Amino acid sequence: MTELLILLLVIGTALAFDFTNGFHDTANAMATSIATKALKPKTAVALAGLLNLVGAFLSVEVAKTVANGIVNLEDFDLSVVAEADKLLLVVFAGLIGGILWNLFTWLFGLPSSSSHALFGGLIGAAIAALGVSGVVWDGVLQKIIVPALAAPVIAGLVAAVGTAGVFKLTRRTREGERDNLFRLGQIGSASLVALAHGTSDAQKTMGVIFLALVASGNLDAAADMPFWVTASCAIAIAAGTYAGGWRVIRTLGKGLVEITSPQGMAAETSSAAIILTSAHMGMALSTTHVATGSILGSGVGKPGAKVRWGVAGRMGIAWITTLPLAAAVSWLVWTLSNLVAEATTMAVGSLFSFLILATGVGLIVYKARKQPVHADNVNEDWDEHGLAPETGASATVGTVSGADTDSDETPAKQDSDTFVHALAGAGVGTTPDGGTFDDPVIGRGDPASVLDTSAGYPTSTSKES
Questions:
Q1: Of 338, 370, 402, which residue sits at a domain end?
Q2: Could you read off the pLDDT of 60-80 as tens digits, one per residue?
Q3: Quick check: 196 and 270 in contact, CB under 8 A?
Q4: Do 194 and 162 sit in the same domain of this protein?
Q5: Which residues pair with 135 in a beta bridge?
Q6: Sign of torsion, CA 69 75 78 83?
Q7: Same domain for 363 and 407?
Q8: In b/e form, how buried is each residue of 215-248, taking b as 16+ CB within 10 angstroms?
């Protein structure tokens, strides 16, 4: 009975992670198309959700990497019930670390890697349970670390060359005509990225559920992926994608580069090619790293384009810290839950883990609902520092941070406050009389309203629905 309870908790939490992966990474496929107005925001996320669903059925190579290439299964004697339960708790704690980091970075609009959050979570929990021998370090290095370092660089170079080539070939074409044609092309290229994202990222959750089924004795390690696992993961990531993830979409679409449709198509084509290739090879690549590298490359490749390297630097910090911090969270969750389990039972320890997850998610969602980012303001212009939309969250420091513009605080301190508030979505959106709002009840009629408020007062931009 205890094993069944833990298994159900793990499967449910794995699908919850898949959902957060969907809305956190929607920006990878659709941010540039939304920014260039090739697609309306809600149309874009609906299309991305559908293609994520389809993509999840195309391959299982990455799932095999996750199931067998991170946690050292040989260190667990799965014929012993206590050892099997211990492995299940490792998987559960790893998922919790991944979810909490995903939601934390989403709250601040940072496009960190959902994949690395999951991998970091599994690594941290495995180390807590078994020490460093609990991790398959060769697999982590070859299938995760090396691709993480190489992918954004390669994506950026390909996008930069592609963007430069596009502008050179179309230099005699009228700008309006050129942009309109590339907007049509972006529908296809963005769709390809969404398909690639489903092919790559849904498999990671499939691998986790497969690992849990092996631990519980319901599957052999050499068995094929059950269809119900593939289908449930496909539906979860598609639903998450449809939820929007407007905070990260805003950062990638408007925060890095003021992107045009030729740049957008070049970036999306670069991302899709690299993600699909890596998925075929079984590499657990971060689609976030690829997409961000491509967008930066499109900014470098366009003559006279302005890249906000300060925002890119903050993203880089999030990338570097994702895996170790997610590992630290899951290490702590496993350690505390194991202490509770030793004092009581494994079932109680697992429920304690779930309590940690529920508390963390509740606090983050509460914060997000108080400071909404939604489909109406996702395309508002950012200020010159990439800190906040100029409309509704004024470019002036005092207005955004809630501090008086005549404050005695230093500019550096005010800039820091501005960044935190802007990425959290504070002060965005305007009322009809020109004021700002952070009403948590706005948008309750939208499917995404539990996490992202996606409807609100009219803003200076036209409503995209």
A1: 370
A2: 777 777 777 788 877 787 778
A3: no
A4: yes
A5: 71
A6: negative
A7: no
A8: bbeebeeeeebeeebbebbbbbbbbbbbbbbbbb
